[in-house]
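Hey team,

Filing this mostly as a record. A colleague (T.K.) asked me to run one chain through the structure pipeline before their review meeting, and I want the input and output archived in the tracker in case anyone asks later how it was produced. No errors, nothing strange. Just documentation.

Input sequence:
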Amino acid sequence: MIVQACLNGARPADFHAALPLTAEAMARDAVAALSEGAAELHIHPRDREGKESLAAVSETVRLVRQACPGTFIGVSTGAWIENDVQRTRQAIAGWTDLPDYASVNLSEDDAPAVIDLLAKIGVGIEAGLATLDDVERFAALEIRNRVLRVLIEVGEPDTDAALALGMAMLHDLESAGIRRPVLFHGFNGTIWPFVHRAAELGLSTRIGLEDGRKLPDGSLARDNADMVRAAVAITRAARQTG
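Output structure:
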């Protein structure tokens, strides 16, 4: 059971004053998040104009790894980043400084090919599932029990509905015989209910400005480290009572 720090995602620059958009800023934020108890990192590298870019992965991973040696570093392969199947594949194949893992959204048409490419170049796979259909598609893949882990990420804004969907996805994964580690997280208004539920279930979770910007009491977080501190406190309390 770990807390992963998701530092920036696809958020625009005006989402939060402390959103890290350069490789240098991501490296600084990574150090701060780890100091508050995050176990690993998930980042969305950006180009010099601040736009998400798979071509920026190598430089960003290199700088973050220099700042945080020995820490697992993951990136996104979201289809929207390059918005072209061939550019996405070419960018991934051209990585020189490899992340430890990369998230692949099973809702995207080219997900199986991206998974195969990542496996071929030696990058771990975090299988991103947002719906029950995603679970079914993932369960049909030969590699389903060889991925690094499963990422259950629910975008449904209603908390009760989001948690119900997340639990149904866990049930379907178990029914399909998939026995991989699970990271369980929400988005915007559901982030803290998901952190709490993950702690109750003994699952890993993630927190950071990619997923939201408020603390459990509803106040605006100062930065990623502020959010990590709160999430780690929740998971530690669950361990002590469990």
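Quick notes for T.K.: Residues 3-241 form a domain with the TIM Barrel fold (CATH 3.20.20.70). The chain has one domain: 3-241.
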